[in-house]
What does this fold into?
Amino acid sequence: MRKNDYDGNMIVIEGVDGAGTTTQARRLASKTSKYYTFENTNGLVGRKVDEMIKDGSYSAETVALGFACDRYLHLEEEVIPKLEKGIDVVMDRYYHSSLVYQSLAGADYGWVKGLHKEAPKPDLTIILDVDLDTVLERIEKRDGLGNNIFEKKRFLKKVINGYKSLEVKIEEEMVYVDASRSKEKVFQDVYKVVRERF
Ligand code: TMP
It folds into this structure.
């Protein structure tokens, strides 16, 4: 990871499936007039990655390379041009997802981290921390478990813990928000953290 030397700030919202990253990131971007974007993207490579994680037969390394390739394309084509213009970007997932999910799926953590050497570090990362029961309940309400290889109870539990220990592994500004509460309560905290920081 390299320093973000662009004029715009990069804010990342992260967390396990069902943590509410999309809801919170969209709301934050809209309330603060920042640019919202998400990973994996809807582009060619992003769609291929979706296919791979539904299929389940691809190696963890191939999936990691797919996510990383989608991410660098996203950075070059969309995110960096905004940052260069001084526009703040709110990212719904970023390399933290790869560090947690792909390493838990079997790819070497250091290798996954190395793939992101040239990716700019966010100015702030908010991790939506949520308990397993809440996650399972939300996914069940949405469309049920099993939409991709990661949506399994045991794996999701590992992902929750993976996010908790991420802070000690990477040196960057990270704030944990208790996301087991209502969308409104969670957003109050997310917004407060962003207002205090910028
Ligand atoms: P989404 O549900 O937020 O669209 O994310 C799609 C799934 O892909 C979700 O289970 C998290 C996973 N994922 C990774 O495993 N690695 C990544 O780098 C990204 C961006 C997502």
Summary: The chain has one domain: 10-191. The pocket of thymidine-5'-phosphate is lined by residues 17, 21, 39-40, 53, 67, 93, 97-98, 101-102, 148, 150 (CB under 6 Å). The chain has a mean pLDDT of 96.
